[in-house]
Amino acid sequence: MAILKVIEVLSNSETSWEDATRKAVKEASKTVKNIRSVYVKEQSAIVNGENVTEFRVNLKITFEVN
């Protein structure tokens, strides 16, 4: 039986929500091993004038505990 743990992570990107998600997983994988999945809980963006300047995601990352 596998034991799984979930952590919540926030990330941002100037490009897209997908890029923010990839950046979060890449950074988390430096210290968290056996990542199994990621759930995008919330998405938001920062707007400056008429332009979206930053994409933000709130993620839940699931990983297996050894």
UniProtKB/TrEMBL annotation:
Protein name per Swiss-Prot or TrEMBL: Dodecin domain-containing protein
Listed SUPFAM superfamilies: Dodecin-like (SSF89807)
Alphabetized Pfam families for the sequence: Dodecin
